[in-house]
């Protein structure tokens, strides 16, 4: 017993010595840990609201316990399931275009030989990311209006129309997904370009000596070298399929396109904050978080099998 106590004491002393030796770095890390405890872990207690009938005049402890009643209401709520369909539809379109396009753009930028032109292309591709959806949403609403730029381009091409495309619910999924890809595709190239910069140039020199074309070098060297980053982005993207962009939805949604634009996040926002049904909104959020965790684990399992049982998480 004394030996175990002495071992614990020695560990505490080593920890204290290491902390004093690197107190500046430890202090920075500790502030991040405290932030996560306050804003990420303590609020987890509030999930109990999902199992209660909570109102603003109650405390979490005093609210009436209703068990799984809120989840039963969710299962029979057609508006919730409509938002699920919209979320999945928009997210799958974003995944289809938004996952592959940053890889293609990153490879194209990496293959550029003129460093000045490369930096210009990078800056232009990053720029939309730094614009808020308030600005981009206003631009899209103007472009797709009856007399907007999109209709003028169609008219120039011989297709005459005066319709306001933002009021057409059938077109919303495409507008939302393509505009999101336009905003984030350039920013999504950063990780790929950073990984490509670490590739040993001798690989390309050897492949060139063997007669490999540029496309063959990209396919046989560049893509395999960034495989882990591709897998990581795929895992994060798939796990977030049920978390559509709330900012984009609130800006672009209107009474005409709402049947196709209402996503889970906006539905939770409307029910929870605007209508005050906190228990129902918390139950929806909890269910979506559980499903997202399952998607994360499943996607990690699949990518692990594709990467010779090597996990990127």
TrEMBL record:
Domain called ABC transmembrane type-1: residue spans: 84-299
Top-rank taxon: Bacteria
Keyword tags: Cell membrane, Membrane, Transmembrane, Transmembrane helix, Transport
Cell membrane in keyword set: yes
Gene Ontology CC entries for this record: plasma membrane
Organism taxonomic ancestry: Bacteria, Bacillati, Bacillota, Bacilli, Lactobacillales
Entry similarity comment: Belongs to the binding-protein-dependent transport system permease family.
Gene Ontology BP annotations: transmembrane transport
Localization per Swiss-Prot or TrEMBL: Cell membrane
CDD domains, per the entry: TM_PBP2
Transmembrane domains' residue ranges: 29-51, 88-112, 124-144, 172-197, 218-242, 278-302
Membrane-protein topology: Multi-pass membrane protein
Main location: membrane
Name recorded for this polypeptide: ABC transporter, permease protein
UniProt cross-references to InterPro entries, sorted A to Z: MetI-like, MetI-like_sf, UgpAE/MalFG_permease
